[in-house]
Every structure is written in structure tokens, then in C-alpha cells.
Design goal:
Length: about 290
């Protein structure tokens, strides 16, 4: 039994006439009769009652017609789905990202993907720079988005955008934007930053900023997620330095001072395994 036999059987079910069915299929009538006979032998049931005047489906034939119709539709769907997977139109794409990227490039990327490939499942996960690299190397993710990240040789990257850092203070902090001169006035403050080991590249940039103003920040609390940092600052547990996009839309009792004149900038990068670049190119180009 093959797919063409099933198709021919279904044409005969529709016409209930061997001559008309053979014409539609474009084979000779005896060949169609032989196919149906072989099909019945293989199934082990009489599918048609034949007489000189009429051809009708048996009870077994009606059941077989219904089920083979369903099986063929499932087969067509499977074939289409397979082609979509091959062309990157189905399956899934797994993206890891830093907190601030959700306020910038991640939503627009997801909208573009949904529009172009509606059957493609997108999985996004917010995590630290270090974990993003680990997940990518283990092939637990496809691409990552992180600020000021340092990547190993197996990974390639491109810069998506650059932006300023922002100083984040509790709402009742004595320092105001008008009286702010430089970061050296904050040398005795406690800071809230990600762990150095988890914020690869990013934390080093913040430490360099502080070092340029003559001090090493005294870290009281560590958090790899922007929302956690902002809540801790709001509670008066310290101050922090974050990408300016991480505070976009934040309705909290905090004070913000954009650090416009620093040589250090937040450099947001997209990165992926170098050996998978051709496979992922269609997605890379959407950022």
C-alpha cells in the first residue's frame, strides 16, 4: 500500500464509477481495478460492492474512506510542518537577554519574528552575562543579548546599540542632579551591583568607572536583575549604576542622574556560536 493507492481509492469513493475515476487519475480502468483489488487484499476487507450497474462502499469501505482521509490530511500537515522547520518557519528560537534589553530590542525582535514566522515558538529568558555564555556554549540557547560582555573565541557578536550609564539613588538621597559634580562624591556610599563572576564584562566596566574617579565601590548587595537592583535602591539599601534603558518606564521612588560625559558606555551586543552563524543569519539580520 502506498499514498498513491490511497489517493486513487478516495477518488473512486467520490465517483463510485471505475471509468470516471480512471479518467480523473489518468490511468486505464483495468489498472485501477487491479489497484483496488490489491488494496482490498492487503486490508483484508471488501471495500466496494460491485455490480454491472453500480459500485457502492461497504461498511468497511466507509470506515476506511473516513480514516484514510484523516491520515492523508495529517500527512499533508506533517509535510508542510517539516518544510517550515527546514526553512526556519517553525520550531523554536531561544534567546537569553539582559534586563535592559527587554526595554529596547527584545520586544521588537519578537514582533518581527511573529509576523514573518507565525508558527515559530520564541523562548526568551532573562539571566546574567555568565549564564548566557554557559547556555550558548551548551546549546541550551541560540542567541544572547548582553551589555559590555566579553565572549570566548567560539562566540561571535555584533553591537546592537550604545547608550549612557545612569546613576540611581534613593528618592530621598541628599545628592541632587543640580549639585552633582562627579562620582568621586559617592566614594563612601554602598553600592548594589551584579556579582563580578556573573556580570562578565559589564561589572568590569562599572568598576573601571569608579576607579577613574579614585575609588573602589563598597558593594553591600548583589543582584543580576535590574528590577531587583531598582527595588533595593528604592528601599534605601544602596545606590547603583545601570544602563539608562533599564530604568525606562520605572515608576519608583528613585532619583536618576544620567552619566553623559563618561568615556565608558553601555555597549549592548548580540552574540551566537560562530559555527552556527549561517543557520542563524535570518534571525541575526532581524535585529
Amino acid at each position: 500500500m502506498d499514498v498513491q493507492q490511497i489517493k486513487n481509492f478516495l477518488v473512486l469513493c467520490d465517483t463510485l464509477n471505475f471509468r470516471k475515476a480512471a479518467e480523473q487519475i489518468n490511468i486505464v480502468q483495468p489498472a485501477l481495478s487491479k489497484q483496488i483489488q490489491l488494496l482490498e487484499n492487503e486490508v483484508g476487507a471488501l471495500l466496494f460492492d460491485r455490480s454491472k450497474r453500480s459500485v457502492v462502499l461497504t461498511k468497511a469501505g466507509v470506515f476506511f474512506q473516513k480514516e484514510t482521509n484523516r491520515i492523508l490530511q495529517d500527512l499533508y500537515k506533517t509535510m508542510a510542518r517539516t518544510a517550515e522547520l527546514h526553512n526556519g518557519e517553525a520550531g523554536e528560537i531561544r534567546i537569553t537577554h539582559a534586563s535592559s534589553a527587554m526595554n529596547t530590542v527584545v520586544p521588537s525582535f519578537l514582533v518581527k519574528v511573529k509576523h514573518k514566522w507565525p508558527n515559530l515558538k520564541t523562548i526568551v529568558q532573562e539571566t546574567s552575562n555568565a549564564q548566557q555564555i554557559d547556555m550558548l556554549l551548551a546549546r541550551k540557547s541560540d542567541m544572547g543579548i548582553a551589555p559590555n560582555i566579553l565572549v570566548p573565541p567560539e562566540i561571535d557578536s555584533c553591537v546592537l546599540y550604545k547608550e549612557n550609564f545612569v546613576l540611581i539613588l534613593p528618592g530621598d538621597h541628599a545628592l541632587s542632579k543640580e549639585h552633582f559634580t562627579d562620582l568621586s562624591v559617592l566614594r563612601n556610599e554602598t553600592f548594589i551591583l551584579p556579582q563580578l563572576s556573573s556580570g562578565i564584562g559589564y561589572v568590569e566596566a562599572i568598576l573601571q568607572i569608579c576607579q577613574d574617579f579614585g575609588f573602589k565601590p563598597r558593594v553591600a548587595h548583589e543582584s543580576a536583575h535590574s528590577i531587583g537592583v531598582l527595588r533595593l535602591v528604592e528601599a534605601g539599601l544602596g545606590i547603583s549604576i545601570e544602563p539608562i534603558s533599564s530604568v525606562r518606564g520605572a515608576n519608583m521612588n528613585i532619583r536618576l542622574i544620567e552619566l553623559k560625559n563618561l568615556p565608558q558606555k553601555v555597549t549592548m551586543s548580540l552574540f551566537w556560536l560562530r559555527e552556527r552563524e549561517e543557520e542563524l543569519r535570518r534571525f541575526i539580520e532581524m535585529f
